[in-house]
Structure formats: structure tokens, C-alpha cells
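Note to self: keep these together.
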Amino acid sequence: MNRTSKQILNAIGTLSLALANRFKTGGVIANEHTLDREETRSHVEILGRWFDFIQLHELPERLSHPHRRPFCLLTFDDGKRSNATAVAPELEKLGVPAVFFVVASSIDSKSPLWFDRQKALRKKLGTLPPGLRLHTLKQLPYSLLVDRVEHACRQFGVEADLHDDHVALMSSEQIRGLHQRGFSIGAHGLTHAILTREPKLAAMESIEKSITQITEVIGAPCSSFAFPNGNYTPELAQYAIRCGAKMVMTTEPIWADESSALWRLPRLQFFGMDSPGKIKLKIALAASGLILDNPDGSGKAYRAINRLARQSSGHTSTAAKIECLSSKPRPHAEI
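Structure:
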């Protein structure tokens, strides 16, 4: 994209976001992954012009009692080392809080996450065979997915670079350090398995063990859980609540407001190379409340879950709503 196109996109994004902020209450939960220091400063600058940055524990109050100025809760998934070496130090300088969601079994691990190995394969081979493409892999149970990626890495002599802080995982000491410095630490599954592709009992075990292990690492209750890849069902989300999470994150791309339930909170995904205009347009589009169709069908799945939630909200208690949702079949969602 040339400079003129970026300027036009930025102008459109600014106007769209200004209109959205004028008429919307609540705010946004930003879903990030890996950023360097410059990208962290840039994202904070863009978001800070429109939103108040809040702590995780402030979220319930800001949802139930909207302020004039909307909020932004920053979250980072996966537990990469750059979260500790680049993102957190920059956020501290800027006085901005955040939540870091960590894959429990990857703490202190010297093995890269499966999608970083897949990315290394793509970089080496250029064009991947259909069976190794990201969309195809995300359809598989975790054990089969990992076996397929490991076999390909051995076959082609490829491995993800653990010297790269965007690939390497945080240590338990780094995670405890973040917690002690005032950042929130949440669970992101035992592995990075897509839980809607796992047997129900295995998915529940992943949720429970990840919350337990994060609690042990930080020496305090783990109060939040984020679904790997964003895929969830109401039953699994409610199970995370029963395991001790007070807030559960998805990746439904809409604003969070007084209608948002704490057991299925929406988040907007941003990436390091997103331009200011793209970030603003994503936020403005999310303000519409519409969930777009994605090639993997996640839009359809999210709308189905939302429809069930609305249907149950008019004539049942909260507990009954949960039971109603948990007992119905749900489509699988993936991002």
C-alpha cells in the first residue's frame, strides 16, 4: 500500500471511529500476540487517543456502568518471550496495564508452539501442500495436528527459531515477574489445542489444568481464561467459570458493552504490522455489532451462539440461561 492509500485509509478510519465513539458505550478488548517496542508504542498511541486503558479487574464495572469515554483492555495471547522483554517494559513506561494469557504447558518449554513451526515450514518451502496449510491444520484434533507438523519438520529439516523472542516462550520467572509488577496473567489452555476439535472431557481437562497451573506459577488465583484460537462453545466457557475464571475471552469481533456476558467476552484482533487506519476501521466496524462471515465459518457459529443467548435471556434466570445454552448443540467456530 502506497503512502497516499495509507493516508486515505487513515482518514476514513478516523472519521469512522469518531462516529462510532459518539454513539457507542462500553469499549473494546484488544487481542494482540507479539509486538516489538515500536509497535507497542504505536498501538498504545492509536488506541489511547480514543480509549481509557483499564485493568482486568475494572472490566465488570466498566461494562455495567459505562463512562463517557470508552475503555480499552489490552490482552496478549500465547505467552511469548517478547511479551516480557519488549511489550511489558514499554507498557510500564507508558503506564498502560495489560493481561497476558499463557499456554500452561509451554512455560519454561524449549519447544515452539505448533503454529510457529508451521510458519517456519511455510518460510522454507514457500508453498505448502494442502495438508499443512493453516486452515486445514485447524480442522484437526491436536494430537494429529502436532504429529503432522512434526513429521513435516523432520522431513524438510525445518525448525522454528527459539532465539527469536516472538517464537520463544516465557519462563515461569518472567511470568511471576509480570504478575508482581501489576500485570494480569490468565490461562490460555494447557496446550494450544483448538478446544472445539477435542473430545469434551479432554477440552475440559485442558481448561482446568491450565487455570490450576497458572495459579501455581503466579501464587495467586488465576481469574481469567482465553480460548486458544478463539474457538469456544457455551458449555466450555461455563466450565472455565466453574474452574475459577471470573472472565472468559473469545475472539468475537465486536465491542464489549452492558450486553456482554463475562463468560463470553468479545475481543478484536490486532497485529504488529496493522496500520493506524486499519486498526481504526476494525474498531469502527466492530462497533456496528455485526459479525462478518469468515471463510472458516466462524461468523455463522458466533451468530448462532448469540441467537441462543438472546432467546434465553427474555424468560429465564441467569443460571437457567447457562443450562439452556450448555445443553444445546453448537457449531464449531474457528478464527
